[in-house]
Specification:
Elements: H1 29-49, E1 54-56, H2 57-61, E2 67-68, E3 73-74, H3 77-89, E4 93-95, E5 111-114, H4 119-132, E6 139-141, H5 142-147, H6 161-174, E7 177-182, E8 185-190
Helix pairs in contact: 1-3, 4-6
């Protein structure tokens, strides 16, 4: 098996990224299950390293995520969608839906949110930050949480508003936060 040295960051790009067979769906179902898991792990690592919260399918199919230009190999779009759909079932991504149902149809699969941490983990991280910065009983906007000066050093800084809201909903269900909505703006008070 040949590989090509691509000078890629090994913390992001796994060794198999440099092997052409990684970009070809394996016909054996057991091998494909293993390959799919390798792809899912790589996608999560990549998105975490790049702080990628939401992605357009058309854009990532053309990016280094699914296309190793040094090898001249890319994952077929149908295989990428199959991997992402499996990740959705595993709770690792969420398709952005344009309809009113909670299930994405084939035509909806154009954008997705990436959960390189589970929503409840993000909720814990945000709440710990609120506690450590003395912001309990204060009302904060979603922008202040994800883009504010106090959150610059936090892993959740820059988080997509959809993911912030989902994390805050977890805290609200726990009874440690209350979400307010005024003129399409969201605020949250922590207890």
């Amino acid at each position: 098996m040949t590989s090509v040295s691509t000078n890629l960051d090994p913390a992001i790009f796994p060794p198999q990224y440099s092997y052409p067979p990684f970009f070809t769906r394996q016909p054996n179902s057991t091998t494909w299950a293993s390959q799919r898991l390798l792809w899912a792990t790589f996608i999560l690592q990549y998105c975490r390293a790049r702080k990628l919260w939401k992605a357009q399918l058309s854009e990532v199919l053309e990016s280094e995520l699914f296309w190793n230009r040094a090898l001249g190999r890319r994952l077929k779009p149908a295989d990428a969608v199959e991997i992402l759909s499996w990740m959705s079932k595993e709770g690792q991504i969420e398709w952005e839906t344009t309809n009113t149902t909670t299930t994405a149809t084939a035509t909806d699969k154009s954008a997705f949110y990436i959960y390189w941490r589970r929503v409840d983990e993000w909720a814990n991280i945000i709440y710990d930050w609120i506690d450590s910065t003395g912001q309990k009983n204060a009302v904060l906007t979603l922008y202040e949480i994800s883009e504010g000066d106090l959150s610059v050093s936090q892993e959740f800084h820059g988080m997509d508003p959809h993911l912030v809201r989902k994390s805050l909903e977890v805290l609200m269900k726990r009874g440690v936060a209350q979400i307010f909505s005024i003129n399409d703006e969201f605020g949250v008070k922590f207890f």
